[in-house]
Amino acid sequence: MEGQTLTGILKKVAGEFPDRRAVSVPGRIDLSHAQLDGLVESAAARLAAAGVRGGDVVALTFPNTVELVIAFLAVIRARAVAAPLNPAYTEEEFEFYLSDSESVLLLTNPEGNAAAQAAAAVVGIPHATASLSSPAGPLQISLPERFESVLESSNDPSDVALFLHTSGTTSRPKGVPLTQRNLAASVSNIRSVYHLTESDSTVIVLPLFHVHGLVAALLSSLSAGAAVTLPASGRFSASSFWSDMRSAAATWYTAVPTIHQIVLDRHSNRPEPDGYPKLRFIRSCSASLAPSILERLESAFGAPVLEAYAMTEASHQMTSNPLPSDGPHKPGSVGRPAGLELAVLNEDGAQLPPDVPGEVCIRGANVTSGYKNNPEASKAAFKFGWFHTGDVGFVDADGYLHLVGRIKELINRGGEKISPIEVDAVLLGHPDIAQAVAFGVPDDKYGEEINCAVIPREALEISEDDVLRYCRKNLAAFKVPKKVFITDSLPKTATGKIQRRIVAEHFVAPAKAPRAGA
Predict the structure, then answer these.
(1) What kind of fold does domain 411-512 have according to CATH?
(2) pTM of the model
């Protein structure tokens, strides 16, 4: 039973590779897998002695630090539920997430977080800090001991270990409980697709409060006996990324398209004088990667770029393009199912043939069993015995999935359904455009029209006419944007994801109703 849990997998790895590097922070700390396991065990016992019990939800809000890694693993080792939260949330947001998750404790670094602590006071839960003063530990947790430690000897696959919220792109965020079994299945799937072993190493560039960074970069690496490096600043920095990668002897990294574009732009303007490490692969996930960006990445860094498809409800990964040894990777595709079943269904639940678009649906051991305290959303999501992703896509004859867009983001222009992802890809093929996003806006004549926002490449200028001429050459007339916004920034989530609805509100709503002082 223990082998079907994430904590069981990590315990086994600590026994198999005790002396191999597990977690590093440049200039501060290097922990082996055995050291990490020891710190996690003692911290879990400490939490149990302070009264944290199985099923209790512990909210964690930290930068990307070694303390967060140990605290997260300790919470789930104690059979409690870890709820990582974005440190940049406002007090009001913290109140919502602490209440909705039913957290019993807020844990932060010693510097604390004023907004989170104020919210915890309103919600009525205690705040504690966690700090690691030396590699030998222990993790100091500022909680009084209430009991003798009653740390249970093993975790159960059905234990809820992680509680996250959907990003709320189309509605109020929904709470997603993920079990030890879900996480164990997910890291096993990811390890298998990318052949991760104890010889691999990566630098974590994504926040660990998000499922992409937490599961794909951190937990999958640790479960393989591999190594992770956390940037000394606690966040991604383009200026130190490649030096960290070289120091870590990194073999791969995973990021969202926005970060890939930042890395590419820096390479174009300030190539690394010491060159780039030899990578086995580069992974892209959490948003669509335009084929033109994929080609530039491969050309610049000499490694295959593998686009994947994931969501919180699937404990992250659902599909991925394979390594070259396992088959071709197809630009514009998010690859083949990775350790789960996938089907494209019509509105009646019937499976559609290759190349016919419908809703992408999945089932497997990594998929949540439902949303917390939201039976209506759970029922809607699990119709016909499948989890419905809300994405439109089709599977080609080779079994590769191609995404068309979110069901609610497809642009319906006078009855013509237009994929904003397709328009994005064309825009990003323009040599002077660095970032681009297409979105739908209300229109009296057609119901909806296409607009887009673009960021020019550094030190270059581009006009709306330039963009429209390029679109007319590369898109059918009904897909050409009606209006182009030239900008130097796009609103993004904390993980670097661009949400079309937010972009539309940012550019279009202010034009309709200017705010005072704007």
Answers:
(1) GMP Synthetase; Chain A, domain 3 (3.30.300)
(2) 0.86
